[in-house]
From TrEMBL:
Belongs to the ribF family. It comes from Roseburia inulinivorans. Pathway: Cofactor biosynthesis; FMN biosynthesis; FMN from riboflavin (ATP route): step 1/1; Cofactor biosynthesis; FAD biosynthesis; FAD from FMN: step 1/1. GO terms for biological process: FAD biosynthetic process; FMN biosynthetic process; riboflavin biosynthetic process. InterPro entries: FAD_synthase, Riboflavin_kinase, Riboflavin_kinase_bac, Riboflavin_kinase_bac/euk, Riboflavin_kinase_dom_sf, Rossmann-like_a/b/a_fold. Its EC number is 2.7.1.26, 2.7.7.2. It catalyses: riboflavin + ATP = FMN + ADP + H(+); FMN + ATP + H(+) = FAD + diphosphate. This is Riboflavin biosynthesis protein. Keywords: ATP-binding, FAD, Flavoprotein, FMN, Kinase, Multifunctional enzyme, Nucleotide-binding, Nucleotidyltransferase, Transferase.
Length: 307
């Protein structure tokens, strides 16, 4: 996959089928679009995703600061599903203020677009004035096919990244996973913690998540963890460990069941399955330890039931 970013000076010669949007999370609704892209790819077009590299909240209003998928994670997901070109367009004033027709013309000229795939609520161009009807109207003028899809719904609500984010923030992991079509995950490098875990007989791996990644509420979760492509069962605390003195950074800390190896500096992925409880400040390490043992027992029972 060719990853084009930080530039408005992109050009693709081969004829393309393109889909546009933010694609945060790449949920089941987005998957509908991906299926169409795959079909068109079989017919000989190159599959392209056009998305915006949106700066952090302080620069632009109305943009959520935390994301379901970081740019790097999106890149891996798109590569995995066979996208040929990922264009991450800088969200500059020039782009924001582009008239919808100019935007379409720019795409067609720069990316040799033969087919545009979008949901029926897709808006683009200055003040979001461009819509799917405009995409259809200009199809003949600019020589592309417009494939407009109805929105996939769940509970009579359109599936959207906003919907998924709300469920994550409410700790409804199963629901979020259902909307996504895969398990919500956090990837990061294993760092040294305070080394207290091993002294209480419950060693943990500490992962510092990417700053922009949306985390579920501070609490304890049943998880599955991938290390070197191997899967392990785990129980994970998301939070600042209020029981432990000091200014602990927000972390994702996992005790892996039946695992005792050194994995410092390895990149691991933690997939969330269900929330067990909220993170709490305990009056002593012993009380915390007792509760952690209960969390481990809950997790073992959870996986035993799965078998
Ligand atoms: C299953 C589990 C549950 C946890 N729950 C809490 C909690 O409710 N409150 C808290 O302050 N820390 C909690 N922690 C974090 C512990 O404080 C932490 O694992 C321990 O201090 C060891 O940290 P270290 O690896 O940095 O030494 C939890 C950790 C795990 C693995
Ligand atoms: N549930 C869905 N069914 C079909 N198409 C969808 C669905 N959700 C989004 N799309 C389409 O996917 C493309 C990218 O959508 P985008 O990621 O920008 O928005 P979203 O998923 O609705 O999230 P947000 O909550 O940020 O608006 C658009 O063409 C959009 O219409």
């Amino acid at each position: 996959m060719k990853y084009i970013k930080n530039t408005l000076d992109f050009h693709v010669e081969e004829p393309t089928v393109i889909s546009l949007g933010k694609f945060d999370g790449i949920h089941r609704g987005h998957e509908l679009l991906m299926e169409k892209l795959a079909q068109k790819k079989e017919e000989g077009l190159k599959a392209a995703i056009f998305t915006f590299d949106i700066p952090p909240k302080k620069n632009v209003e109305h943009i959520e600061a935390k994301v379901l998928t970081t740019n790097e994670e999106k890149m891996h997901i798109f590569e995995g599903i066979g996208i040929d070109y990922l264009i991450e367009c800088p969200f500059t004033r020039e782009v924001m203020c582009m008239e919808p027709e100019d935007f379409i013309r720019m795409l067609v000229e720069k990316l040799n677009v033969k087919c545009i795939v979008a949901g029926e609520d897709f808006h683009f161009g200055h003040n979001r004035r461009g819509d799917y009807q405009m995409l259809k109207r200009y199809a003949l003028v600019y020589g592309y096919e417009a494939l407009i899809l109805s929105k996939m719904k769940e509970d009579e609500r359109d599936i959207s990244s906003t919907f998924v984010r709300e469920e994550i923030m409410a700790g409804n992991i199963e629901k979020a996973n259902h909307l996504l079509g895969y398990r919500y995950f956090v990837t990061g490098m294993v760092k040294h913690g305070n080394q207290i875990g091993r002294t209480i007989g419950i060693p943990t791996i500490n992962l510092i998540p990417p700053e922009e990644k949306l985390l579920p509420p501070f609490g304890v979760y049943v998880t599955e963890v991938f290390i070197d492509d191997k899967r392990y069962y785990g129980v994970t605390n998301v939070g600042c460990k209020p029981t432990i003195k000091g200014n602990n950074p927000v972390g994702v800390e996992t005790h892996l069941l039946d695992f005792r190896e050194d994995v410092y500096e390895k990149v691991v992925t933690v997939e969330f399955r269900t929330m067990i409880r909220e993170e709490r400040k305990f009056e002593s390490i012993e009380k915390l330890q007792e509760q952690m043992m209960n969390d481990i027992a809950f997790t073992r029972a959870f996986f035993a039931k799965m078998k």
